Amino acid sequence: MEIDFSLYNILIVEDSEVNLFMLKGILERESFRVFSALDEFAALETLEKERIDLILMDVMLGDSNGYDLTLRLKSMDPYQHIPVIFITHLRSPEDVVRGFDSGGVDYVAKPFNKMELLQRIKHQIRLIASNQTISRQTAELKEAILNRDRMYAILAHDLRSPISSLKMIFNILSVQAETAANGYSDMVNTGNDIAEQLFTVLDNLLKWTKSSLGMLSYIPQKLDLNELIQGVTETLLPTAKLKNIAIELDLQDGLEIFFDVDIMKSILRNLMMNAVKFSHNDSAITLNLHREQEWAVVEIIDTGIGMSPAVQEQLNKQIAREGAVTPMHDQGKGLGLWVVYHFIHTHGGKFFFESEEHNGSRVGFKVKLVNDDLIA
């Protein structure tokens, strides 16, 4: 990597004017920009005024010493990152160890060899340049990821509205197709299923990107879970009919929660669509809603293909490390599960699942019932 040394500032802290003049001449011939200080006070004054990339520190500085000054610099936020190379007549192992303990990165004994000194300085400058390159690339990568997520959010938002309208049209057509004798019922139901799947994917993507960007707004309100479940189930009946799957509801009345209605619809839609997807033809799915002390419990039970032990272990690992918004990194897990777990967890609820391969699954969640004293 070619480095322009004129871009780097070096501070020489040396109480001998002769040594100071000699060091300054050596470094300036290599195009470094050099600053000098005869004592601790002058060194701190220069550091306040100039951006310093590297310090050449003499150990003996009259009434003070370079070790103590380095320790002081390493305790000050603006100067912690500046590498310090000690230059001194002291060369005992104890002095060398003390230099490194105080925060020095290298040690050159006087009288120094010019070429050795330059190589040690240039090595540190190359490390600085490499770190700057890494920091710059990291910042650029973070910005690229942020822009990608912004693009996802914009794309999902712009597509969600027309897909939502298309879904509504298919919902209406699928109901009307039940009484029509034109043979198009299956086609309408298939179109409705595709629209439902597209809407769910876009809805999940929108929530994931907005959550990762800190843009997702929560508008919790008092909800009747019974009514909400019935509404979501009704929109999914045409999808279930394609596989001749019956959806059986066992709902307890009067269970109210304090939750964001759009997010709860997404949670229910994801769990129900997963159950339909992994159920066998001509089977049934049961959705239970009941009270368990202060919790409202929703569970969806199917007799489908179930999950293998390996898949269940993978799922448990994802839940165990939930905290960072990173579900898309894991193959085979998808956004639907993340939407369910993340938002149930965010609202103080609990997600649970149990499954047996080839025999179906029981998946659900618990959320706190409304405390009217807190809502008032």
What report would you give on this structure?
This protein is an alpha/beta fold and 376 residues long. The protein has 3 domains: 5-112, Rossmann fold, CATH 3.40.50.2300; 142-216; 218-376, Heat Shock Protein 90. It has 11 helices and 14 strands. The strands form 4 sheets. A 5-stranded parallel beta sheet has the order 2-1-3-6-7, sandwiched between helices. A hairpin with a 3-residue loop joins strand 13 (350-356) and strand 14 (360-368). The longest helix has 64 residues, at 114-177.
Provide a quick synopsis of the model.
This protein has 376 residues and is α/β, with parallel strands linked by helices.
List the helices and strands and how they pair.
Layout: E1 9-13, H1 17-29, E2 33-37, H2 40-49, E3 54-58, E4 60-61, E5 64-65, H3 66-74, E6 84-88, H4 93-101, E7 106-109, H5 114-177, H6 185-213, E8 220-224, H7 225-241, E9 246-251, E10 256-260, H8 261-277, E11 284-292, E12 295-302, H9 309-320, H10 334-346, E13 350-356, E14 360-368, H11 372-375
Parallel strand pairs: 1-2, 1-3, 3-6, 6-7, 9-11
Antiparallel strand pairs: 4-5, 8-10, 11-12, 12-14, 13-14
Strand content: 15-25%
Total number of helices: 11
- Work out the radius of gyration: 33 Å
* Low-confidence segments: 323-334
One letter per element, helices H and strands E, the order comes to EHEHEEEHEHEHHEHEEHEEHHEEH
CATH fold-level assignment of the largest domain: Heat Shock Protein 90
Count of domains: 3
Average predicted confidence as pLDDT:
83
Find the count of extended strands (DSSP E, 2+ residues). Answer: 14
Please describe the biggest sheet, giving its number of strands, its sense, and whether it closes into a barrel: 5 strands, parallel
Residues in helix, %: 40-55%
Shape: elongated
By secondary-structure content and strand pairing, the structural class works out as alpha/beta
Across the major sheet, the strand order is: 2-1-3-6-7
Return the CATH class of the largest domain.
Alpha Beta
- What's the CATH superfamily of the largest domain, by name? Histidine kinase-like ATPase, C-terminal domain
Shape-level CATH architecture of the largest domain: 2-Layer Sandwich
